[in-house]
Amino acid sequence: MSIGVCYFPEHWPEERLEADIEQMAAAGLEYVRMGEFAWSKFEPEPGEYDFEWLDRAVSLVGDHGMQAVLCTPTAAPPKWLVDEYPDVRQEEPDGTVRDYGGRRHYCFNSPVYRRESRRIVEKLANHFADHPAVAGWQTDNEYGCHGTLHCYCDDCASAFRDWLRATYDDVDDLNDCWGTGFWSQDLNSFAQVDPPRHTVADHHPSRLLDYDRFTNDSVVAYNRLQVEALREANDEWFVTHNFMSHDGLNAYDVAEDLDFASWDSYPTGHVQAHHESVSADEFRAGNPDNLGIDHDIYRSMTDAPHWVMEQQPGDINWPPYSPQPADGAMRLWAHCAVAHGADVVAYFRWRRCLMGQEQYHSGLLRQDGEPDAGYHDAVEAAADLDRLAAATDDDKADAATGDVALIHDYDNLWALDKEPNTPEFDYWQHLETYYAALRRRSVTVDVVSPTTPLADYEAVVAPTLYLADDERAETLESYVDGGGELLLTMRSGVKDSYNKLHDAPQPGPLRSLVGATVDQHESVPESLANTVEYAGRQFDSHVWNEWLVSDDDTDVLGRYDDGPADGTAAVVRSERGTGSTTYVGTWPKPAFADALVGDLLDRTGVETTDPLPDHVRFTRRGDLTWVANFGGEALTVDAPADATWELGGETVGAYDVSVTDAAPSALSIREESR
């Protein structure tokens, strides 16, 4: 459990280097990430290389007892490369070329750019292959940032056709699977297929979904060529990539080639990007569930603990508003990361830059080199983690697996993105509705891909399995037959894997699990939001309603009690084997989600707490529990008399954290703190 920092030695006078690295070591930092975006420094002219400046930085990092994480510089190709090979640039759907001047303007499918990327990565990897201070590498930087996953150039057109040839038996098979008879879209050959460029009206949803899949595979292949070059140079290095929050890239696929996943955490920016309304506390510290779900996605991707490769150090330049984080927030975020299973938290960046597009992005140091608030938080966090490491059983430190799985599926995300059917429908927000309900009960959640084995989980929550086939149904049926408790939600079993409606009523192949069919569905504005009677109480729901017709042996747990669906089933439960499936046909608001998840957990025997306030979370890792307060007022925790507080105590200040050996189920928030 370590603290690190992102450093750009090429941005500062050479005489500053040793003083910076001495100060990093004195602060208790253990990892220094360097080299991303530095291609023009590494290779100022074609074939002329300069690694000396990074040699010196890496050696000083090692001399001061730290380790270097180096980055491949491919996210920002130099001007000479773009001038020599202009076709490496991306094109937008209308043919507009994404020109030089920013970053991430290269095409993943450009054969030239793949060749040039492999060349610079090999040069760097071979140069540093025997350097003892280099611990590992980050490939590229934030694949897809700035909306750059998709490109529509001629190289992509050719690669897409090849991808389709490998995916389908022949063009007749493609026509059948897509359903190209609609709007005269039948194809006579794969050569007729173009990327979904700018057109009138909407593109065919099956074509769009396959283009997302093709694009994702293109990123996987591009990343793999870098990983292979790095491992050929030194197979003892770790290799990772820094993914983004609530991303559209299927990180599960990319992570198959990595040793562990990393991601870039900016809580006060992400809450603005992902939530429609943001509270005063969230502007200062973010939202614990919006933050936690990303940790649990990337934690669950590999067998190794994940990293935070970029941690927000203070105010940042890119969200709509950039309030100063609350005192202690940067330390709180580091603890939140570690509690969710991270082994390293690296703050971005060491010092506020004097030039370029990120001058309004803070660092641990101010622009004059003096410590900023983030520096003090990072120093304190590093000392905290050293203290906790001494109190932690090493065999349990990596244990951050959950009793409950939340299924998260990029295919569903992509398909629903194309046809949300209402402005308010957002896959990520629906996922977070159930994640937050689980976390309010202090459950450790594994956010997993659909291919993850489920047998070891006491409960599985699967929000909106929009695309479902017989294989998916059989997997879930086997889980329930074996005693599992499954919760499915609205808009499940709607389409097949090619993004076409099933020829049977929703939920299609999931019908035998659910024990009901969907008679009607509707999307509703907030002015038509309705209530549901569930377990003798009235609850609010919104956005989407399905009117369910249940089988005779299916229990109706909730009914709409207003509007045209009045009296119609909204929530049903069907027993099967030694388990059961609950189906929720509407989007529950938080209190309703708490009730649904609470009943699910009660049937499993999973240890939980009473629902916590929205700003408080208990998180268990190994033999320690973190109590995180994302709110602006202090709170008091009731704990067993024999509980040991390894950090802090029963009073947890505003935007603060305490750590105890007591299990979450043994803790509660004192009533006056609520």
Automatic annotation (TrEMBL):
InterPro entries noted in UniProt: Beta_galactosidase_Trimer, Class_I_gatase-like, GH, Glyco_hydro_42, Glyco_hydro_42_N, Glyco_hydro_b
SUPFAM superfamilies according to UniProt: (Trans)glycosidases (SSF51445), Class I glutamine amidotransferase-like (SSF52317), Glycosyl hydrolase domain (SSF51011)
An annotated GO BP: carbohydrate metabolic process
Gene Ontology, cellular component aspect: beta-galactosidase complex
Gene Ontology terms for molecular function: beta-galactosidase activity; metal ion binding
Residue span, Beta-galactosidase trimerisation domain: 403-606
UniProt entry keywords in alphabetical sequence: Glycosidase, Hydrolase, Metal-binding, Zinc
EC number assigned by the record: 3.2.1.23
Top-rank taxon: Archaea
CDD domains: A4_beta-galactosidase_middle_domain
Residue ranges constituting the Glycoside hydrolase family 42 N-terminal domain according to the UniProt record: 6-387
Catalyzed reactions per annotation: Hydrolysis of terminal non-reducing beta-D-galactose residues in beta-D-galactosides
Pfam families in the cross-refs: Glyco_hydro_42 (PF02449), Glyco_hydro_42M (PF08532)
Classification via PANTHER family: BETA-GALACTOSIDASE GANA (PTHR36447), BETA-GALACTOSIDASE YESZ (PTHR36447:SF2)
Family: Belongs to the glycosyl hydrolase 42 family.
Name the record gives this protein: beta-galactosidase
